[in-house]
Amino acid sequence: xxxxxxxxxxxxxxxxxxxxxxxxxxxxxxxxxxxxxxxxxxxxxxxxxxxxxxxxxxxxxxxxxxxxxxxxxxxxxxxxxxxxxxxxxxxxxxxxxxxxxxxxxxxxxxxxxxxxxxxxxxxxxxxxxxxxxxxxxx
Length: 138
Description:
Layout lengths: L1 H31 L10 E6 L10 E3 L3 E5 L6 E2 L10 E6 L2 E6 L6 E3 L2 E2 L4 E3 L4 E4 L2 E6 L1
Parallel strand pairs: 3-4
Antiparallel strand pairs: 1-2, 1-11, 3-5, 5-6, 6-9, 7-8, 7-10, 10-11
């Protein structure tokens, strides 16, 4: 009787392992058939910065909605005392980039002009947030 129970347990164990292997194989097959990552939509290049951890020439990839600020929840974190915790948001709408100051203390500038409402940003424009200057590039 114990021998039969051992055989049944061993059979169930092998059946369980087979299910695990089949599930892993199915997941790997689905992952390999996933479309490639979205192409790079744009970047911000650091033009000027007083931060030692943010060097001039650094490339910051943009997502369709990118938040910028000092707090850790932002997509782009700028450790500058002149940058608010939640400073600005850059969004892609109808194949065009827009930037909006979201109530920062020191404001946001595009090409040296302070913005007060959502403003379009073209490639080559300079965005100033705190003491950091960023240039929008492809």
